[in-house]
Here is the input.
Amino acid sequence: MKKRDILLILGGLLIIGVLWMAPEESTSRVPKDENHERFYTIVKAEGKKAAEKFCGECHYDDGGVPFPAEHPPKNRCLFCHKIIVN
Ligand code: HEC
Ligand code: HEC
Here is the structure.
């Protein structure tokens, strides 16, 4: 095997590893309660993007359910907050 091939394989493994680890699994999941139950149905039927449009109805900083102060950019809620449908 050429040195270049080995580097390619290592590079590939690195990319897989990064994809595997991100986003962090420690981020809280979308709860399965009366507030969030309908999103399990929407995600199942229409996908994550369709469901995310409604998060802002309750989750906003001034008067809604506030975000933690150090919350990261939040345009794709379900990319980080897992919703487990099956
Ligand atoms: C009808 C209002 C409402 C909507 C819509 C809503 N939420 Fe919530 N959410 C709440 C409330 C109230 C809480 C805090 C109490 C709780 O845990 O249920 C909360 C808590 C959370 C939490 C924290 C759970 C924890 O472990 O503490 C996450 C994550 C979350 N919501 C994600 C989402 C996402 C993603 C969406 C959109 C798909 C969404 N929510 C839509 C009302 C809502
Ligand atoms: C880039 C990743 C990312 C995105 C996108 C994101 N969040 Fe978060 N969110 C986090 C992290 C990290 C925390 C802090 C750790 C935790 O409690 O989960 C957090 C915390 C929260 C909490 C408090 C959780 C708790 O346990 O008290 C709520 C509620 C929440 N996010 C809702 C949302 C909503 C709604 C959206 C979309 C508008 C969103 N987040 C988008 C990463 C993200």
User: Anything to note?
Assistant: The two ends are 43 Å apart (CA to CA). Helices lie at 3-21, 37-46, 48-52, 77-80.
